[in-house]
C-alpha cells in the first residue's frame, strides 16, 4: 500500500503572520489524519519558522526549488545541504512555473533532482504537458522526455523513494482540473514506464496529481488507483479547503 501524500505548494505567497495562522489551523485539523502524510512547501524565507512550528508534529515540509550546484559563488541560489539544516524532507523540482517562467530545462531539473537526493532530501519531481501539447497528442512524449532526463542521469534506482507529481500545465491555477480519468490515464502511463525498468520501484512510487485540486473534486481524483494524493496550489492557502482535501486522501 502506498501512503498518500497531500502537499501544499504555497508558491510565492504568505507573510510571517499568515504562515503562523495557516499552520495553526492545519496542525489542529491534521489530528486523526495519520494514515496520510501532509507536507507544506513554503517560500525559502519561511522555512525556519515552519520548522519551528512543525517540529514534533507529523506534518513535514520542503522547499519549492533547490540549486543543482554545490555551495559556492551562485548569488540568489539555495543549495540542497542548506535545506537539510532546516530539516526539509522534500525539495520540489521541475515545477512547470520553474520550467516555463525561469527557463529550467529537463536537463537542469534532473541535476536538481540529483543534488536533492545526494544531500538526503526526497525529490518531488513535477511533470506535465501544456494545453497545446495535449491537443496535439504529445502528452506521453512530453512526460517521457521529462522523466527520461532524470532516468538518464540517475537511473531507475534514483527514483526509488522519490515522489512524482503529474501537473498538467493547463490545469494549474485555471480552475480547470483534469478529469479523474484523464489524470489516471497519465498516472498509469508514468507507472508503466517506470515498471519497464523496475516493477517494485514503479509499484511503490507515489504519483501525486496537481492542478486545481479543491475540496470539491479531491475525493473522485484520489479514488483513482494510480493517484496517490495531491500537490495543491491555491487551495493549500486556505485551512478548511486544504484539510478537506487531506481528509479526502485519508478515506
Ligand atoms: P493550483 O492548485 O493552484 O492549480 O496549483 C497547482 C500547482 O501548481 C501545485 O504545485
Report on the architecture of this protein.
There is one protein chain. With 251 residues, this protein is of the alpha/beta class. Helices cover 43% and strands 15% of the residues. It is built from 11 helices and 8 strands. The protein has helices at residues 16-30, 47-54, 80-85, 96-101, 106-119, 131-135, 139-154, 180-195, 199-204, 218-222, 239-249, and strands spanning 5-9, 37-41, 60-63, 90-93, 122-127, 163-166, 206-210, 229-232. It has an 8-stranded parallel barrel, surrounded by 5 helices. β3, α3 (80-85) and β4 (90-93) form a beta-alpha-beta unit. α1 (16-30) runs parallel beside α2, α1 runs parallel beside α11 and α5 packs across α7. The two termini are 14 Å apart. The model has no long low-confidence stretch (mean pLDDT 97). Bound molecules: 1,3-dihydroxyacetonephosphate.
Briefly say what this structure is.
The chain has 251 residues and is of the alpha/beta class. Helices cover 43% and strands 15% of the residues. The chain is globular, with a radius of gyration of 17 Å.
Percent in strands: 5-15%
Biggest sheet: strands, sense, closure? 8 strands, parallel, barrel
**Helicity, as a percent range:** 40-55%
Arithmetic mean pLDDT: 97
Q: What structural class do you assign from the helix and strand content?
A: alpha/beta
Rg, nearest Å? 17 Å
Elements, N to C (H/E) = EHEHEHEHHEHHEHHEHEH
Write the layout of secondary structure elements.
Elements: E1 5-9, H1 16-30, E2 37-41, H2 47-54, E3 60-63, H3 80-85, E4 90-93, H4 96-101, H5 106-119, E5 122-127, H6 131-135, H7 139-154, E6 163-166, H8 180-195, H9 199-204, E7 206-210, H10 218-222, E8 229-232, H11 239-249
Parallel strand pairs: 1-2, 1-8, 2-3, 3-4, 4-5, 5-6, 6-7, 7-8
The structure holds 1,3-dihydroxyacetonephosphate.
Amino acid at each position: 500500500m502506498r501512503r498518500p501524500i497531500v502537499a501544499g505548494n504555497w508558491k510565492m505567497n504568505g507573510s510571517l503572520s499568515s504562515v503562523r495562522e495557516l499552520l495553526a489551523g492545519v496542525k489542529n485539523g491534521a489530528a486523526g489524519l495519520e494514515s496520510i502524510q501532509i507536507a507544506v512547501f513554503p517560500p525559502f524565507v519561511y522555512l525556519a519558522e515552519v520548522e519551528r512550528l512543525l517540529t514534533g508534529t507529523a506534518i513535514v515540509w520542503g522547499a519549492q526549488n533547490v540549486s543543482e550546484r554545490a555551495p559556492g559563488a551562485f548569488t540568489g541560489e539555495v543549495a540542497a545541504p542548506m535545506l537539510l539544516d532546516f530539516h526539509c524532507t522534500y525539495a520540489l523540482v521541475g515545477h512547470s512555473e520553474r520550467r516555463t517562467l525561469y527557463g529550467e530545462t529537463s536537463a537542469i531539473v534532473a541535476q536538481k533532482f540529483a543534488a536533492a537526493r545526494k544531500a538526503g532530501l526526497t525529490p518531488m519531481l513535477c511533470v506535465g504537458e501544456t494545453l497545446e501539447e495535449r491537443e496535439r497528442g504529445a502528452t506521453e512524449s512530453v512526460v517521457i522526455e521529462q522523466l527520461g532526463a532524470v532516468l538518464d542521469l540517475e537511473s531507475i534506482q534514483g527514483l526509488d523513494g522519490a515522489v512524482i507529481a503529474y501537473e498538467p500545465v493547463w490545469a494549474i491555477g485555471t480552475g480547470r482540473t483534469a478529469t479523474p480519468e484523464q489524470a489516471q490515464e497519465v498516472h498509469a502511463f508514468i507507472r508503466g514506464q517506470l515498471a519497464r525498468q523496475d516493477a517494485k520501484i514503479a509499484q511503490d512510487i507515489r504519483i501525486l496529481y496537481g492542478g486545481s485540486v479543491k475540496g470539491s473534486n479531491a475525493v473522485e481524483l484520489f479514488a483513482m488507483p494510480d493517484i496517490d494524493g495531491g500537490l495543491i496550489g491555491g487551495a493549500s492557502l486556505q485551512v478548511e479547503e486544504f484539510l478537506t482535501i487531506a481528509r479526502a486522501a485519508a478515506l
